[in-house]
Amino acid sequence: MDSSCDLIGIDVPKSLPVTAKGGVQLNDTLVGVDLAKAIFQLAISRRPGRFEDHPRLTRDQFLPFFAQLPVAIVIMEACGTCHYWARKVRELGHAVVLLPPGQVRPFVRRNKTDRADAKALVDAYRNGEIRPVPVKTPEQQVLTSLHRLREGWMAQRTARLNALRGLLREQGVFIRVGANEVVPAVWALIEDADSELAMPLRTLFAEACQEIREIERRLDLVERELGALARQLPEVERLMQIPGIGLIIATALVGFVGDLRRFPSARHFASYLGLTPREYSSGLRQRLGRISKRGDSYLRMLMIHGARSVLSRARSVSNPDRLRTWALALEKRAHHNKATVALANKIARIAWAVSVGDTDYRSVPAPDKVA
């Protein structure tokens, strides 16, 4: 077979033995790939500690190279474009493994270079304790893209609202607490001919209010798109049955985490979200501190906000269920914020149990108080 890689001057190893591994014909070759925007650095190894070749490919040469390479295990770093390239390389028959960047970094020896990064990926793969990152599907990437757009627009909206509050405070105008209070109050000042607001500020404040309304329109559009996608995903509708998990959190979990069944236990999933205590132990002394705050900060923020909503509403419920009763009792013993984070931890564990059991959430009544 003519090799398109030969035409572009790339040497492809051809005498590589093929072995059966897990029922799939895999090559003994490991290929570490340091992804980039335009240039891709590879490190090819067949034996531990030995690297036979270090091809350096352009973006146009990348897929043709793997199309002619015998079936191998391709290791990439979990970065922005890794999921797209992983799916493309899988279509060519290779096995693809994505590794967390933070756990690959200790394997980089001496100076950081593209070649050192590619070799570090291979060495990290041989360490069985590093858990790979699952490759996202196109549907998951659509969900994550919508969430990233929403997150950015939410930050812009908050910045504009805070700017208007601060500038008006300097003018002696104080607006009540609440994001929905700012724009109506500013419009009232602009339309009031007797207000002391200067004319140049009236014009620019009106532009700022229109900008906020435009951002809110975009946020509504994102949520409508998320709602349309949620109706096509049974796992999203199942997660939305859990207290504290609505459309935003459910779609975020499916988009960013994927299949929750890949976690061996509910605590592993809570630890993945950074909601479990950080441990600093030695010898006979065990010390548990604050939550680790590891993992995706966006997901953790959403889970804590959802738990805060459940806890605040639980106070007005006449007959709370067991979950809300537990949270209210914990709030009396500990600080409100501690109870909120603990409830977020429990909600995450419930989400894992619902996903693993492939069942609907069932509210459990609170036990009767013993007289």
Give a count of the beta strands, DSSP E runs of length 2 or more: 9
Average pLDDT metric = 89
Widest sheet, order of strands: 5-4-3-6-7
Which sequence of SSEs, written as H and E, runs from N to C?
HEEEEEHEHEHHHHHHHHEEHHH
Total number of domains:
3
Radius of gyration: 27 Å
Could you tell me how far the N terminus lies from the C terminus, measured between alpha carbons in angstroms? 84 Å
Number of helices: 14
Task: Report the helical percentage.
Answer: 40-55%
Uncertain runs are 1-25
Based on the model shown, name its key terms.
3 domains; alpha/beta; two-stranded antiparallel sheet; globular; 51% helix; disordered N terminus; Nucleotidyltransferase, domain 5; 371 residues; five-stranded mixed beta sheet
Structural commentary:
α3 (82-91) links the parallel β6 (73-77) and β7. It is globular and about 80 Å long. The strands form three sheets. A five-stranded mixed β-sheet has the order 5-4-3-6-7, sandwiched between helices. Strands 1-2 form a two-stranded antiparallel sheet. A two-stranded antiparallel sheet has the order 8-9. The chain has three domains: 4-125, ATPase, nucleotide binding domain (Nucleotidyltransferase, domain 5, 2-Layer Sandwich), CATH 3.30.420; 138-230; 235-357, no CATH class. Mean pLDDT is 89; it is low at 1-25. α7 (182-191) packs antiparallel against α8 (199-230) and α8 (199-230) packs across α10 (247-257). It is built from 14 helices and nine strands. With 371 residues, the chain is of the alpha/beta class.
